[in-house]
Write a structure and sequence with these properties.
Chain lengths: ~525, ~375
């Protein structure tokens, strides 16, 4: 085997805008490190000329791997991989050292340069032991996206996907779409807009009714979805899947029945009190929401003599919803603040007693009590079908990365996240638009799988299932040979499985034990 | 932004261009006005879907208001999202299909959806016509000028600072110190809704400030654990119910939440800012001196919004924000889309989401999918 040769690129901006240290000094230090074929400063690699210079530098160096000391791989990872590929190297043969945020931004000039030197030396040592990781480039084989959900959220997500020129299958768990509650819409134009979407979107998509998703296999761009419906089980291939569980946004009576303003009138109610969901029901927030205000305004329009009271700890009317609050107040809707939980009295309840911070202990009578609670359906079945973790409330857990909204731990599977903002139509639309845009981005380009992933040594594995149990992403499974194997497309490289394996059969690519030892060696050997 | 009790103001409605039908082949390029988090997200989202764009920024640097904010994490990330703009600036710079122009202003917009000609002017009065298929307006909003609200004493007392001033100090030096003494504060008050929810100034909720002040309060506590914090608010309106300021405050000694809108802040003993407010459930007026008072500013339409709206031929709403039509991201002029706080105050996450949504609408227009 020929000796490994590392090229070290120091970006001129690695020392920060204030030039905390001289990048040339860092390059000179790197050039003298064992194994380094060439080290030099490139003027701002994130600019077009800088990128060209970096590519030329790597080509001329004759190295087969590289270290780049610049800014964060979080934002520049794609650029670094592109530079490596263009120079004829493996796209994973470039190790980024963030000396800008890690040294220049946080240390005084002297220590900053020392830390940068150590960081580069560690990276060089790590790259000396580099080996190409398993990887595969996927081109989406299908431009068809499955939207799983029964309500308006699913319809909105489907519309956003169709508008990007993608094909959409809507998978309903029941025979028909759920109708959104009237109190979600702050005016008639919003209601009309939503109803038009409910009517027109299913015509542009393929609607599969009464379908239960059983499992999902395959890779992003090529996901195989097994569903079961009236005609028995079926398997379809999709480029991506969007999960759009419908939140419950109805106002419900104490028996749990949804009540609209017209229903309240129909029941002969003369006085209605809307209570917050709050802690007692375990769902929603303890606030007065725009939905309660819309309901009250509509009820007053239908029945001007009705008395309407909204109870809650806060008035949740963000942004322009302030106007709605003013409108409701001037129409005569009463707003009461709650301190603690309200207590219902009588059977059936005819009175509510609560502590108002200004009025003190207050009692109100009403002949209809409604509860305003938002809840997202518990998603056990979806979680199991897609191998997704759930949070403590049973909702699907998404990667809450602000740079990658909508993504779940399964590449290619996206999920709408609810319970944000006012929970009015605009919030549902915004979430659907974001998630659908992410799916569109995935299907546009190619996806690289692999890199920092776990691999099981088939000879050493004793099929003890430790890795299968610990993995949050359901990546390892027992293969045909009766040994554990890790699915490339599911592994996130978190490393949870490797130290747990009693046979030490699991290797982390791009971050092997030998590489870690070598890196630690640099620090421990360093004279103090 | 949505105003419910309004009638369309005359003269501000869209001047619908008679040629505003989509050409057979729309120009495959989108101009994005503004490089805050909404504009940058729109550019990146379009790039990922294969559409080139041109980001136009009036100022000398990219990132908008969000890039002026400081990180509020100390021992852990508190998800203040202030890094989002900086990260996106980095990503935009490294993207080959996004062009950037700084120091340019929009003069006029002609043509119809799919075939628009945007006239822009650079700093050296050099004018240029940009041929694009769609325009995304992401010019954001401005913080309210606290000198308009004289009774809060900003500008008279050094230790009454705005949330933006505190953010900038956090961004530049990473510290939170009392301006007059340079020492750590031992008592600090957050005053919410400054300008917001006020018929005289911004008669709407600014939507970002409860969240932002909550994160600032966490940063203050992490940096100065013994600092006592009073949080004076009208309603707690955090977007995500999982971000529970009540739960946080109840677990911190010396943090109190007071539902009250201060009537006045004046210089008390030793020049310390003294806040006068009615305590909750008690008609008595309370006066309390703090080392430092932080005013959470409303977001208001930027002074240039009116001119820009005229240049672009889009309508404004009653508050002076860009008017949306049909959905929150479609302006009153075909081919011009809206993202972020230019159409109403939003927090960072909502602005970023707006960027994706507006990008999808531009893409649908350019590729004829809608």
């Amino acid at each position: 085997m020929s000796q490994a040769k590392v090229a070290v690129i120091i970006c001129s901006w690695a020392a920060g805008e204030d030039m905390v240290f001289d990048p040339k000094a860092l390059a000179d230090h790197a050039a003298a490190l064992p194994g380094v074929a060439r080290a030099g400063v490139v003027h701002r690699i994130c600019t077009e000329p800088g990128e060209e210079e970096a590519v030329a530098f790597l080509k001329e160096s004759g190295a087969d791997r590289s270290v780049v000391a610049a800014c964060s791989p979080r934002t520049k990872g794609a650029l670094h991989a592109r530079i490596a590929e263009r120079a004829g190297l493996d796209r994973f043969a470039i190790e980024a050292v963030d000396v800008r945020e890690g040294a220049a931004y946080v240390h005084a000039p002297g220590p900053a340069l020392e830390k940068a030197k150590t960081s580069v030396a560690m990276a060089v040592e790590k790259m000396m032991l580099w080996a190409p990781p398993p990887q595969r480039i996927l081109e989406p084989s299908s431009r068809r996206v499955a939207v799983v959900g029964d309500g308006l959220s699913a319809v909105l997500a489907a519309r956003e996907l169709l508008d990007q020129g993608l094909e959409v299958d809507m998978l309903l768990s029941e025979e028909h779409l759920w109708k959104p509650p009237r109190c979600l819409f702050i005016d008639d134009s919003e209601a009309g807009r939503a109803m038009r979407a409910m009517a027109s979107v299913p015509e542009r998509a393929r609607v599969l009714r009464s379908r239960a998703v059983r499992c999902c296999d395959g890779e992003p761009g090529r996901l195989e979805l097994v569903t079961e419906g009236p005609g028995g089980p079926s398997v379809e291939t999709y480029g991506a899947v969007v999960l759009a569980p419908e939140p419950d946004l109805e106002l419900r009576d104490l028996r749990g029945e949804a009540v609209s303003a017209a229903d309240a009138q129909g029941r002969g109610a003369r006085s209605v009190i809307v209570l917050p969901g709050g802690k007692s029901s375990g769902t929603g927030c303890s606030c007065i929401t725009p939905r309660g205000m819309v309901f009250a305004l509509e009820a007053l329009r239908l029945y001007p003599d009705m008395r309407l009271s909204l109870l809650g700890r806060e008035v949740r009317a963000l942004g322009g919803m302030e106007s709605l609050q003013r409108q409701a107040q001037s129409a005569g809707v009463m707003f009461y603040r709650l301190d603690g939980e309200p207590v219902l009295e009588g059977s059936p309840p005819s009175k509510v007693s609560f502590l108002d911070p200004l009025l003190g202990r207050t009692e109100l009578e009403a002949d209809l009590f409604l509860v305003d609670s938002v809840s997202v359906p518990r998603a056990e079945r979806l979680a199991r079908a897609f191998g997704l973790p759930q949070d403590e409330k049973g909702e699907l857990l998404s990667i809450e990365s602000r740079l990658r909204p909508g993504e779940t731990v399964r590449a290619g599977v996206f999920a709408c996240r609810h319970r944000v903002g006012n929970m009015v139509l605009e919030d549902l639309e915004r979430e659907a638009a974001t998630v659908a845009a992410r799916a569109g981005e995935l299907l546009r380009g190619e996806t690289v799988l692999g890199g920092m992933v776990a691999e099981v040594d088939q000879e050493r594995c004793s099929a003890c299932l430790s890795c299968v149990r610990i993995c949050p992403y359901s990546a390892p499974r027992i293969g045909a040979r009766g040994k554990a194997e890790v699915l490339l497309e599911r592994c996130q490289g978190c490393g949870a499985c490797a130290p747990l394996c009693p046979s030490q059969a699991i290797k982390m690519h791009l971050c092997s034990d030998a590489q870690l030892d070598a890196q630690i060696g640099i620090v421990t050997r360093r004279p103090s | 932004m949505r105003a419910l009790d309004r009638a369309a103001p005359e003269g501000q409605a869209a001047t619908l261009d008679p040629r505003s039908t989509v050409r057979t082949v729309p120009v495959r390029k989108v101009a994005i006005i503004g490089s805050g988090v909404a504009g940058l997200t729109a550019a990146l989202s379009l790039a990922e879907r294969g559409v080139p764009s041109l980001v136009l920024e009036r100022e000398r640097s990219l990132g908008g208001l969000c890039a002026q904010l400081g990180c509020k994490g100390v021992d852990r990330c508190v998800r203040c999202d202030s890094c989002l703009a900086r990260d996106k600036v980095d990503m935009v710079k490294a993207s080959p299909s996004i062009e950037r122009r700084r120091g340019v202003e929009v003069v006029s917009l002609e043509g119809g959806a799919g075939d628009l000609r945007l006239l822009v002017q650079g700093s050296s009065s050099h004018r240029e016509v940009l041929q694009v298929g769609a325009v995304i307006c992401a010019t954001g909003a401005e913080p309210f000028d606290p000198s308009l609200e004289r009774r809060l004493g900003h500008g008279e007392m050094r230790d009454v600072v705005t949330s933006l001033e505190l953010e900038r100090s956090l961004a530049s030096s990473g510290s939170i110190l009392v301006p007059s003494t340079g020492m750590a504060p031992s008592t600090l008050a957050f005053v919410q809704c400054v300008g917001s929810r006020d018929a005289r100034f911004a008669p709407y909720c600014s939507a970002y400030c409860c969240k932002s002040s909550f994160k600032l309060a966490q940063a203050v506590r992490a940096k100065h654990p013994s600092c006592r914090i009073s949080f004076l608010f009208m309603d707690l309106r955090l977007h995500d119910p999982r971000e529970n300021i009540r739960l946080w405050a109840s677990g911190q000694e010396g943090v109190e939440l007071v539902r009250s809108r201060p009537s006045e802040i004046c210089a008390g003993e030793g020049g310390k800012p003294t806040v006068r407010f009615a305590a909750e459930g008690d008609a008595a007026l309370e006066e309390r001196a703090f080392d430092m008072v932080v005013l959470a500013l409303a977001l208001v339409p930027s002074p240039g919004a009116k001119d820009l709206a005229r240049s672009l031929g889009v309508g404004l709403d009653d508050f002076g924000f860009m008017r949306s039509q049909g959905d929150a991201w479609t302006s009153t002029r075909p081919g011009v889309f809206l993202a972020g706080s230019c159409s109403g105050p939003k927090d960072i996450v909502a602005s970023a989401k707006d960027g994706s949504a507006a990008a999808t609408r531009a893409l649908a227009l350019l590729e004829g999918f809608r």
